Amino acid sequence: MMQYRELTAARLRVSRMGLGLAALGRPGYITLGHGQDMAGRYDTAAMEEHTFSMLDAAWQAGIRYFDVARSYGRAEKFLGSWLRGRNISEGAAVVGSKWGYTYTANWQVQAREHEVKQHSLQQLDKQREESNLLLGGYLDLYQIHSATLESGVLDNKLVLDRLHALKMHGLLIGLTLSGPRQAETLQRALEIRFGGERLFDVVQATWNLLEQSAGPALAQAHAAGLGILVKEGLANGRLTTRNQEAAFADKRALLQQLSDETGYSFDALALAAILAQPWADVVLSGAATPEQLRSNLVALRVGLTPEQLQRLQGLAEEPERYWTTRSQLEWN
């Protein structure tokens, strides 16, 4: 079932769907119903065992791209241990991680702060060393976590010089985007060059049926040779049957109508709409259970007609509204 694609600039073969460990490496996350998925099993040994089972299921399904970050609790540790424990050779899987946020929840579901953002050179050097210790030669791609124009990271010469040095030593360099100004941030990133060559090889952005504003900029970046990774394809669970908010009733009715027509679940339809975008190289599943992963993977065989795709894309919200709603989701 799995499909594969080569990232143009990176020359890496990746699976069209990847597995993100944001909801697996720490007890709390903002996905709707996450607490239900974890069933209260929050001790580190149980969570590591659960993550291993998810990684095994992903590997068996053909997934070869795995996404972690320094702020995802023990996600890098779990992934590195799994790769070594399963004797998976370096290069057989493609691993991307991120720097810029520090995990601060102390293994608690509820915390005053779950992660703290800092885009300094000191943070880059510190977290790069930590990622290297946990992932070693498995790490292919290192990304600025949630680069924004407001953070100033794309104008920090010391940081950019260090990232270029890492690139010269063979590490792919990327950035992830968030917020209503994703497109503007990406445009700025595309301007950053060293000796005529773009600094960034890959960009990871939020694009889903509710938040489509970055689409034209992602298409431009893809045409320029950047690999495109798509995160939050299910809008942290808002594009699943778990979303019972009254304000979502009309959108839920449309999804149900298309689900009845096609026989596919909400999540499969939403992810298939992303896979239908020619610029989308990898679509990340944020599944926290094997059942969710299997349901997400059905998207690979969904054949949407142009008319169905157009109807689905009619679910889009204004970016400001989308990001305001996302900021109000509860850690659970």
Automatic annotation (TrEMBL):
Keywords from the named record: Oxidoreductase
Highest taxon of source: Bacteria
Domain NADP-dependent oxidoreductase: from-to ranges: 33-316
EC id: 1.1.1.107
Keyword Nucleus: no
GO-annotated molecular function: pyridoxal 4-dehydrogenase activity
Entry keyword annotation includes Oxidoreductase: yes
Enzyme class: oxidoreductase
Name of one Pfam family that matches: Aldo_ket_red
Protein name in the entry: Pyridoxal 4-dehydrogenase
Gene this chain is encoded by: pld1
